Amino acid sequence: MNVILMPGPRVAATPVEECGEPLIDVRAYQDLLVGGFKSEPAGHFAYLRQGVVERLVHAQSQLPAGLRLLFFEGYRPPQLQRSYFEEYAGAAGRQSELVRRTDPLPGPRRTHARPPSRKAESMTTPVSRSDHVAPRAAGSAGQQAASRHAVWVGAAALVTDQVGRVLLVHPTYREDDRWLLPGGVVEPGEHPHVTCRREITEELGLANLLLSGVLAVHSLSPQHPDGQPGTPFPGEIRFVFDGGTLTPDQVEAIRLPREELSEFAFLETRDAVQRLRPVDGQIMLAAYRARLGNTATAHLADGRHILDVPALDRNDVHVRYRPLWDSPLNRGPVPERLPVQQAWAWCFVPDGRVVLVADPGPRGALPMLPGGTVEKTDPTPEDTLHREAAEEAQVTLTDPVRLGWVLDETGEVYGSVGPNARLRLAARVTDIGPAAVDPATGRPFARLLATPAQAAALLGWGPPGARQALLAAETALKRWGLPTARPAAIEEVPAEGMRLS
To answer: Which of 92, 213, 248, 358 gives a 20 to 30 Å CA spacing to 16?
Structure first.
């Protein structure tokens, strides 16, 4: 058999020519699902030649309804590719030596297993000491396998309802009375995603729930205080998959195994962390924020990010449940009998994203659209918007346009003033200045840039919020010619502000 290895000289001698096609980020194409299995902080994995992307999109369009292509990896930087080659060459060399030493058949058959080449030996780069196998010390493949480090492996799903509350289950078998994300232990020979689907079926009775990607991978050390007290605990690797958003019908269909789970609940993230073990709360938040912020898979060790901390995690942003989330947006003028108590706006920057502010507090930061309460000194709600946007976000706006209004029947948050209107507008941002302290709260707000769809999810407004976000984006396109924002990671506005072209 003539085996050609990728790092071999025949491959290296193959001439390569630049085709001239640009690299395109496949995450900008909503037709393609992008998995996080091969993701890395710089995001190189998501880039492909333009022609390849076009062929993938065309292939997706030819698939039957309900079938999706799942993209894992495209471009590899040379340094990463080299590390893969070196690791493969080293592993191939070690395996060859093990076969030579453990082959039980006598005679000429042994000549088929050759010792590692000098080139393979020179390319070996062990990842850790436990990965290095000295050929003369290896008695058998079985001994090598027995010496490998073993940990528990678990899989869980991050599932939400339509307004962004997280699904937790209450197990009957835990002595600490803590809740969990739905999921369980990976059985021998089982892949984590298979485990997650099996547990979702067994625990919730939802057999057809789609897992769209890996949101977080977490490593728990044996000595962590949230480990298993009184039990030999070797450590744990846990995968958290994106179980998506359940419809009301799916929520009604949930059926629990009462001998294992006593109840389930959809909880605002600030309340969910109170019912979880501290480390489980950190995992849940990192996974949820990876979904909301459209960032790469979160890699955690003992509850902490091991790579760059994304903006939502850095500012401890939570999704707040809003009682008026299902109130319709009335498109006509506000009736004269209704006072306008609030003016919030979708504030667009030139690339089609919007500005959000997050008010930091003891239980985390809550995202809002720029704007606020209409004061008696404000001549119009539009003047309220300009003032509040400047105070909270240091944003300068132009040409605000009314999108509609939401009826607040009680006015409880304004001192029970009775029925009133909460105005929703769209406006164009012309400048974002340096961060400053908000005079009303005495603290600076975090300033975030998100797509309108991301903003609606963070606001916890459910399907009505998604429709309002779409209306705002359509208004920005027609009125100011602003593009539809492409999917991207949520960013924090720098403290020094931003120059907008």
So the answer is: 92
